[in-house]
Amino acid sequence: MDLFEYQGKQYFARYDIPVSPGGPADTVDEAVTEANNAGYPVVVKAQVQVGGRGKAGGIKLADNEAEVREHAENILGMVIKGHVVKRLWVERASDIDEEYYVSFTLDRAKKKHLMMLSAEGGVEIEAVAESNPDAIVKLHIDPVDGLSSEVARQACLDAKLPERAIEGATETIVKLYRCYTEGDCDLAEINPLILKPTGEVHALDAKVTLDGNAEFRHLEWEAFKGLTEMDTREKMAAEKDLQYIGLDGTVGIIANGAGLAMSTLDVVNQVGGSAANFLDIGGGANADVMAGALEVINFDENVKSIFINIFGGITRGEEVAKGIVEALSRVDLKAPIVIRLDGTNAEEGRHILADAGIPEEKLRSEATMLDAARAAVAIATA
Ligand code: GDP
Ligand code: MN
Questions:
Q1: Percent of the chain, pLDDT > 90?
Q2: Ligand 1 atom 16: residue of nearest CA
Q3: Residue 49 CA: which ligand is closest?
Q4: What predicted TM-score, i.e. pTM, was given to this entire model?
Q5: What is the C-alpha to C-alpha distance for residues 346 and 76, in angstroms, rounded to an integer?
Q6: Taking the domains of the chain in order of start, what are their residue ranges?
């Protein structure tokens, strides 16, 4: 789950990482109230889940109420890289001496955490990586050892942070590591991490991705939900615990396993079609999951055919078939299904489908993935 900046800052605050006082606002009046609470000057910030908001005009300083009004009016409703600004974050503005970059992610190949630290923050880190890769210090951290203050301090020295920033940066980095590990983040990034003229080090931006697999032990994450930028289809799928991504083609896709789902997208493209979605029902999906998946796809007006591609391993063919039969009894599917059912208990599954007496124009079976893709695309483009 990706957090908005202000949610990321709320999360940082739980781990005692210094952030500016402020509050979220959905209207101009609310922005004024938050600005008055925070104290001037303030910064009015668009809350969208993309970087480069500053450059796009989504971040403005304001010295008084009139300026807050003006900026809030301009920024609310603004479209930044395809994201409509529906919410602002208004915080006390900070004086900045220097801007740094720090982040933690997992390096799967090395089976270690990866910290990246640079004295050249503020700008997009990809740009620094390209023009001046030596300016980024990369440090692998064994999760068993954790990150000590000594190691964090050495990283700050290696990154050539100035003497007066070392203490504050070290402390913040250690806190961010705690937030990242104990807080179960996939990504915890501060860009910029600033040095104030007073010598304090402070998080001015927050990019946090929470690890959905750890949700069971974080009841506090509930507060972050409901606001994430999902389209209606994605919301519906999330409620059913499905791995679903909405796309803009016409062939609805259901597959078991992310790898197979992606290959299915490729094959549909290869035969001249386009996918309406990516939907992985996972391993061991039962009839209920299949029925739920069909309901989500049925909700999409653009879907002209539904391609179900199952290669049973743990997932069993008869469960898939039962799910389809159940879905057809529960919902009136607008688009016909083309299914390729293979692997564990596929034969049994095909019998269940045949015995259900579903008319050919509602459901047809193809022996191979390619033939099924051709059939689904033919229906979608007819
Ligand atoms: P991003 O462009 O989406 O990454 O948004 P950021 O929150 O990182 O802000 C972009 C830039 O705006 C920062 O790098 C700062 O230079 C500037 N900025 C943001 N907040 C403040 C602030 O409180 N005071 C000052 N002077 N500049 C700010
Ligand atoms: Mn930033």
A1: 75
A2: 122
A3: 1
A4: 0.71
A5: 53
A6: 21-92, 98-225, 232-381
